[in-house]
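pls design
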């Protein structure tokens, strides 16, 4: 096997590994957002936790992410207001979430504009700038969501089901029934 073929295989393998790591990171990110939203009491949720997973759908997930950013932010705001821990300047993830999406939009716009002769030279750097800014904002968003999750976990040691859900939800309670509950 010649050196060019080996180099090609090494680069292809590294790109495949990078792709798998990116998918794994994106799944772990959605898991973090899902767990955070599950900690928000039902009456304060603007978004069902399970809807977060639609963000993994290719292309359509970008549009779902806009709703996720807004829904998570509003839900966290309402929950922390109810807990009496609302901080007036806190965006509850809205600011980095918007920067994340705007960076993706800028990169997509630059990629489309790169096909036009007038913008072909500037499209590459603008796309790299948009993707870099988007990735940085995404990481900041993820870190903030994890911080909110930890804050909520300090308040709630039980599950987030309402009393009505606990009354009528068979199988929600963990453990076995007591002897007097058995027929």
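designed seq:
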């Amino acid at each position: 096997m010649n050196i060019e073929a080996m180099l090609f295989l090494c680069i292809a393998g590294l790109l495949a590994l990078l792709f798998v790591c990116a998918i794994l990171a994106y799944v772990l990110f959605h898991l973090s957002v899902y767990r955070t939203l599950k900690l928000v009491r039902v009456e304060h949720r603007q978004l069902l936790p399970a809807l977060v997973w639609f963000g993994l759908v290719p292309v359509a997930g970008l549009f779902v992410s806009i709703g996720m950013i807004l829904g998570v932010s509003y839900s966290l705001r309402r929950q922390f207001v109810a807990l009496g821990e609302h901080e007036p300047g806190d965006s509850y993830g809205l600011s980095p979430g918007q920067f994340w999406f705007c960076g993706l939009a800028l990169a997509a716009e630059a990629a489309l504009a790169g096909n036009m002769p007038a913008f072909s030279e500037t499209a590459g750097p603008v796309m790299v700038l948009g993707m870099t800014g988007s990735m940085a904002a995404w990481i900041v968003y993820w870190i903030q969501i994890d911080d909110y999750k930890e804050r909520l976990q300090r308040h709630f040691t039980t599950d987030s089901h309402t009393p009505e859900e606990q009354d009528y939800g068979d199988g929600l309670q963990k453990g076995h029934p007591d002897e007097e509950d058995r027929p």
